[in-house]
Design goal:
A hairpin with a 2-residue loop joins β17 (156-159) and β18 (162-165). The protein folds into 2 domains: 2-89, 3-Layer(aba) Sandwich (Udp-n-acetylmuramoylalanyl-d-glutamate--2,6- Diaminopimelate Ligase, Chain: A, domain 1); 100-284, UDP N-Acetylglucosamine Acyltransferase, domain 1, CATH 2.160.10. It is an alpha/beta fold. It contains 3 helices and 35 strands. The N and C termini lie far apart (82 Å). It comes from Prosthecobacter fusiformis. Keywords: Acyltransferase, Transferase. InterPro entries: Hexapep, Trans_hexapeptide_repeat, Trimer_LpxA-like_sf. GO terms for molecular function: acyltransferase activity.
């Protein structure tokens, strides 16, 4: 366990307390240090018993009753990510991964597989696949040529000198029987308090990206060239059509369908079917589109003669 006064000046500490790791206001592991630069996340942290310490502003500090440790600064996000960068550099994050190679795996000689990752039985790893050590790969997983697992994603913090990339310190879990097609990328989580996960028997299509802390449920099909942004959740049995984008934090319900080329910025209910930019219910959209086509017809089409 660490204490706030090991990392912050005494004058900036409202209440000193211990913490074990870093994470966001909704983190689950006990003893998490979070940050908040808005009242929404202060309230979320206060309602979360896992949060033992928080970095926030002077104005928001009065709303932190119930949180054991409070550090105050002008830019909580900047302070948090500087500490996070130190955590990554010093390898303080504790990942639940031990080195392991299962039986009857087929690994192409051109693949780059880190020594520290965990790989189950009967895994197929194709040409030029890259698996970094912050990955746990289940059994009977197929990774086709060029798939990339546990990569860094685009997370940055704006500074006076321009955007600064923030390193990732978490990990990835690929469940049994998943298929990652050529060029697909799965980004590892930011902290050890969360994970990026691809569920049992799910398929990630050609050149698709699973962002950090995204959760792809079991039996999901993500078609080609899709982007699942950070912390989105794709429910069991859902279908994501080719070229679709799912915004961060959005939840796609179980067995829902997102049609090709969709931009999803709001939650989708179980068994719903949506399409478009931005998405709405698919069937009414198609009926409206068909009506527009009918209305646009002219006698020269030979249809109204």
């Amino acid at each position: 366990m660490q204490k706030l006064d090991q990392f912050f000046e005494a004058g900036s500490i409202l209440r000193n307390a211990e913490f074990a790791t870093l994470g966001y206001a909704d983190a689950r592991p006990l003893g998490t240090l979070a940050f908040s630069d808005g009242i929404k996340y202060v309230r979320q942290a206060c309602q979360n018993p896992a949060i033992s310490c928080i970095i926030t502003t002077q104005e928001l500090a009065s709303f932190t009753e119930g949180i054991a440790g409070v550090a105050i600064c002008k830019d909580p996000r900047e302070a948090f990510y500087k500490l996070h960068e130190r955590w990554v550099a010093e390898k303080r994050y504790q990942l639940p991964i031990t080195p392991h190679r299962g039986v009857n795996c087929r690994i192409h000689p051109s693949a780059i597989v880190a020594d520290g990752c965990w790989i189950g039985d009967h895994v197929v790893i194709g040409e030029n696949v890259v698996i970094r050590q912050q990955a746990r790969i289940g059994s009977h997983v197929i990774m086709e040529p060029g798939a990339r697992i546990a990569m860094e994603g685009i997370l940055y913090h704006r500074t006076p000198d321009g955007p600064r990339m923030i390193p990732h310190g978490g990990y990835v879990e690929i469940e049994d029987h998943a298929v990652l097609m050529s060029g697909s990328t799965v980004v590892r989580s930011i902290h050890d308090t969360d994970v990026t996960r691809v569920g049992h028997a799910s398929i990630i299509g050609l050149n698709s990206v699973v962002g950090h802390e995204a959760k792809v449920g079991d039996h999901v099909v993500v078609s080609n060239q899709c982007v699942l942004a950070r912390r989105c959740v794709i429910g069991k049995g859902a279908f994501i059509g080719t070229g679709s984008f799912v915004r961060e934090h959005v939840k796609i319900g179980e067995h829902a369908q997102v049609m090709a080329g969709s931009i999803v910025i709001t939650n989708v209910a179980d068994h719903a079917s949506v399409s478009g930019n931005f998405t709405t219910e698919h069937q009414p959209r198609m009926l409206h589109f068909a009506k527009k086509l009918r209305d646009a017809r002219t006698p020269s089409d030979g249809l109204n003669a």
